Amino acid sequence: MFLVSFICSDIPQTLQLSKPSKMKTFSSIQPLQNLHSAAFFSSTPKRTQVPFSARVFFCQAKSGTNESLNVKLLSPMLLVAEKEEAKAVLTLFLKKQGLSNANATKIINRSDPFIDHLISKLHSKHKTWYLSGRELTTLEIRDALISYLESLFEEHGHILVDVVENYPNPPVKDKSAEPIPPPNPSPAVLSKKLKAVSLVSGLDPAAGNLRPHFVYLMELGMEIGQIKTIIRRYPAFANYSLDGKIKPVVEFLLELGMPKEQILIILTKRPQLCGISLSENLKPTMKFLESLGVDKKQWAKVIYRFPALLTYSRQKINESIDFLLELGISEESIGKILTRYPNIVSYSVEDNLRPTAMYFHSLGVDVGLLLFKCPQNFGLSIEANIKPVTEFFLERGYTLEEIGTMISRYGPLYTFSLTGNLMPKWDFFLTMDYPKSELVKFPNFFGYNLERRIKPRYARLKCSGVRLLLNQVLSLSSSKFEDVLKKKMKKLQID
C-alpha cells in the first residue's frame, strides 16, 4: 500500500492535458479533442488498429491445451511474433547440434505442433507477466526457450529431432541401438563438464579457486548462493567480461547515486543489463528517454523501479509514448509518468493499455488524467482485477456514474485487493453512521489502514459525541484531528 501511495503522490494541482506539440523523437499525433469521443477508441492516427470487435474476440479466445495460458490478453499479432521468435530460437539450437540451416528449416516447417508447444511453455513460465500486461523482450523469450530446449536435449539426446517432428507423440527409444558409452569420458566431454561445473560452482577449473565474477560480486555484498541462482537462471552472465561488461555497469550505477544494495537487487532481477553495451545501448537509451522528459536526476530511482526499461527498443517505447499523446497527455506529463512509473512502457498498447482505457472511459472517467495520477491501473487485468471491483460496488448499490466518480477522485481504488482491503473496510463502514454517498465524496477511505487509522479515529469520534465528515476523520493529522474535536465539543457545550 505504501508503494502505491508513494507512486500516486506528487500530482500537480493542475494537470495540463492540452493538445501536445510535436515531440522531437517521433511524428506528431492528432490528439483527442474530446476524450469521450468513441472514435478515439477505434482508431489510431499513426498505426493501423485492430477493430474493436476483433479485439473483443481476442479477449475471449482460449488456448486449446491444458498447459497453455488463457490468452485473453494476447493478440494474434503478438502470438505470430512469438511463434517467429520461437522458430528462430529452435533454428539456432538445431544448428548448434550440427544441422545445416536448410535441414533445420525443413524440420521446423513441418513441426507446427512443437512450435505451439514452445509457446505454451513460454506462457506457462511467465503467466503472471502476461496477466499483468507485461510484454516479454526478445532476450527473455530466447532465454526461456533455450533453457527448455537444453533440458529436452539432456533427456532425449540424438533423437531430439524426432521429438520435435513427431510432437506430441514422442518416438520410442530403441535401447538396443544406443551405443554403449565409453568407460572414461573423452577430453572434449570432460572439458564441457568442467565448464558447466565452474559456471554454477564458481570455481575456476584451471586454478581451482573462485572465478573473478564470484569474488567481485561477493566483495560488493552478494551472497554466493545469490550468485549461483543468477547463473542457473541466466548462464550467459558467467561468460560476461568482468572488466568489459559487469564492472563498467556497476560503476555507472554507482555514479548515478544508486546504493550498492540496490545494485545487487538489480543484478539479481535483471542480469542481462550487464550484457548490453554501456556506450552503444544503455547511455543512448537514457538520453533518448531524457528527451521524452525523464528527469535525469532521478535515474537511480527509475532504473531501480524498472531495470528492464533500458532493454526495450526505441520502437517499443515510441508505441507507448504515441498512445499517451493520443490520450491528450502533455509532453511534460509524459516525462513525469515515465519517471514515476517506467513500467508503463512494458504494457502492450493494443492488448492492455487501449482496452483498459476503453473500460474506464465507459465509466465516464477522464482516462488521460487517471493514467497520469495512477498509471499502475493500466497494468491490471480487466477480467481478473478491474471488473470484479466494479461489480463489488454495483452489488452494493452504487451506479456506474458514482463508481466512475470514485475512481476519478481516488486513482488507486482499483489497485486494492477485494478480500484483503475493500471487503473488510466496507463491512466496517456499514457500522459507521455515514450514508453510502459519503464514500463517493471520499473514496480515499479505502486507502487508510483499518486497524491503525480508521477504527481508532472513529472510536475517538464516537466518544466525543460530535459528528465530522469522513474526510475530516481520516485525512487530518493527529493534532489537527484533536483540535477539530475539541472545537466541536466546546461548541456543543455552549449550545
Structural overview:
Keywords: Transcription, Transcription regulation, Transcription termination, Transit peptide. InterPro entries: MTERF, MTERF_sf. The protein has 495 residues and is mostly helical. Helices cover 59% and strands 0% of the residues. It contains 26 helices and no strands. The radius of gyration is 28 Å and the shape is elongated. Mean pLDDT is 78; it is low at 1-68, 173-183 and 189-194.
Task: Please outline what is shown here.
This protein has 495 residues and is mostly helical.
Provide the fold topology.
Elements: H1 2-8, H2 52-60, H3 76-96, H4 101-109, H5 112-125, H6 127-131, H7 138-156, H8 160-166, H9 187-201, H10 212-220, H11 224-233, H12 242-255, H13 260-269, H14 278-291, H15 299-305, H16 314-326, H17 331-340, H18 349-362, H19 367-373, H20 382-395, H21 400-409, H22 418-429, H23 437-441, H24 450-464, H25 470-475, H26 478-494
Helix pairs in contact: 3-4, 3-5, 3-7, 5-7
Which class of secondary structure composition applies to the elements? mainly alpha
Strand content: under 5%
Distance between the termini: 42 Å
Q: What is the share of helical residues?
A: 55-70%
The whole-angstrom Rg is: 28 Å
Shape: elongated
Succession of helices and strands? HHHHHHHHHHHHHHHHHHHHHHHHHH
Low-confidence stretches: 1-68, 173-183, 189-194
What do the pLDDT scores average to? 78
Query: Helical segment tally?
Result: 26
